[in-house]
Amino acid sequence: MQSDPGTCKLRAPLKRSKILHMALMGASDPSGEAEASEEKPFLLRALQIALVVSLYWVTSISMVFLNKYLLDSPSLQLNTPIFVTFYQCLVTTLLCKGLSTLAACCPGAVDFPTLRLDLRVARSILPLSVVFIGMITFNNLCLKYVGVAFYNVGRSLTTVFNVLLSYLLLKQTTSFYALLTCSIIIGGFWLGVDQEEAEGTLSWTGTLFGVLASLCVSLNAIYTKKVLPAVDGSIWRLTFYNNVNACVLFLPLLLLLGELQALCHFAQLGSAHFWGMMTLGGLFGFAIGYVTGLQIKFTSPLTHNVSGTAKACAQTVLAVLYYEETKSFLWWTSNMMVLGGSSAYTWVRGWEMKKVQEDPSSKEDEKSSMGV
């Protein structure tokens, strides 16, 4: 629970664990925002927010297009999606360790926690790591089989799974208005699938991977909250252990699926361009976690979700233009339903959280209101 801002005069800078907690719970930190706005001129703060949001958009959109190139480019012809995912995890692991070493050598110059591999902690993180592997693997497999334009719709059921799993695992009910927004998302998803099939571009395999990715994203949020105490609430330590575990668990998969053998016969295995693009993909994968936390810190979890929805819309339009695709009115309608439903859910949950913060007694009324 958040502490009352009136109980303390000085506030420490937001820790990443606090940022993640606010992101998962949908709560903002109004006192921190008010302090920041008092300390800095409005123009400077507005410029900082614009730069942070732009950085998030550029990083996220670039990562999607780059991964699409690595996973399904006719010029590359690399059919090893698990290896691409493994390599990105390896890059993230090395970057975390490198930054940790740099912070130890140059204290004050780099702000990064000390990272030492503890097998006990690695084992306690293992259940989350399995879900994490499913999330990043199914995300990449979905992107491999569907177009970038349909990618957002294909993975649009995360919010729906959040509501469902919150009830099944945490026994948390959901308000009628939140359920209504979920029904809009489901309607947009089914309309999008129908329109992709009508245009002859639907991949049922990619759509299934998208649904599984959505499920894993929801499970990842739930398990993250459970295991954060094992890494002292540090998101970077959690990132490090998750990716170390993922690298180890991916190795038998690479052998079983024959991807190592396929790599041996890959024509561009010795190409500097290929390894440069692979490494760049890993850098974007590492950076997205940082810029997400940065955007939440400089704005709020609600604004971050709205920004993510707007980014998805821009990404869809860019993909249609870049790949020179022609889409029907109903196809665009499905996208607007998904984006509109997601935005509406974010607004509803933000309004409900604000109401509970302002009037704690309304929490009991919320539990007894119409819900799942």
From TrEMBL:
Cellular compartments annotated: Membrane
Pfam families registered for this protein in UniProt: TPT (PF03151)
Transmembrane domains' residue ranges: 42-65, 85-109, 121-138, 150-169, 176-193, 205-223, 244-268, 274-294
Residues in Sugar phosphate transporter domain copies: 48-342
Gene Ontology CC entries for this record: membrane
Signal peptide: none
Keywords carried by this UniProt record: Membrane, Transmembrane, Transmembrane helix
Protein's name in the database: Solute carrier family 35 member C1
Organism: Rousettus aegyptiacus (Egyptian fruit bat)
